[in-house]
Amino acid sequence: MCRLKQLTLLAAIFLLGLVPPLYAATLTLNTNQTSFAPGNILSISGSILPTNDSGVLSDIYVAVVLPNGSIQTLDPNFVWRNALLPIVSGYQLAQLNAPNFYSLAMPTGLPEGSYTFYLVLARAGGNPMDSSMWLGYANAPITFFNNPTPLLLNVVTSWANTSTSVSSYNLILTVSDVSGQQLAHTIKPERTSLRTDGVRTSTSDNLAVSYPQGLAASYNVQVDNATQSRCSLVGGSGTVNDASSGNANAHPTVSVTCN
To answer: What value does the mean pLDDT take over residues 21-35?
Structure first.
């Protein structure tokens, strides 16, 4: 019962923002998108930038507040626990950049609703429920849906077939809401076996991603930066309509010409 009260109090601190006005560090926390469905990949990135008190010993916590208000923290083995465990203990405060430090394919059966991830830096050995021990914090909210809506696009690639022409590239599909916020994202490779005789050939494929029903407004397709100057793309953007779920013919064909 005491432990439950402690976790509830910590949740209240996180949710109400009862934190000290000055920090020894500036923290950032970001997810690769803000809405997720089963099978979507969640990636979390964070950073720490000392503003003062460099070298102070600290503990780093990565926590998530679930839709029911309960809290889990990520332990040093990157396992979520129903306990207040730091992911790093005794960290000497210094600049730290951790891109994509945690990734997970979202499973089915998770409770739908809002989840908020937190990155908290506290003085080493201090009680993480005591906000006066915090050296900095950041958060990143997401929404999870169990019943996603698929967006399906037809892709046709024209290949140059010379000894020096492009033989592979990546397509990047992003779905956004009305404010331009990314909801879903996928990367798919396209490849061919070059004939090297200069006679153009074409290949057909599909590009798909799932997004939360009722939230998407538009989609955009791009060629990866590595081959962008040698592969042109037509039909790479449009509006998203839930009624066209899974119907590739309801959207323009994505035509890519690679040289």
So the answer is: 86
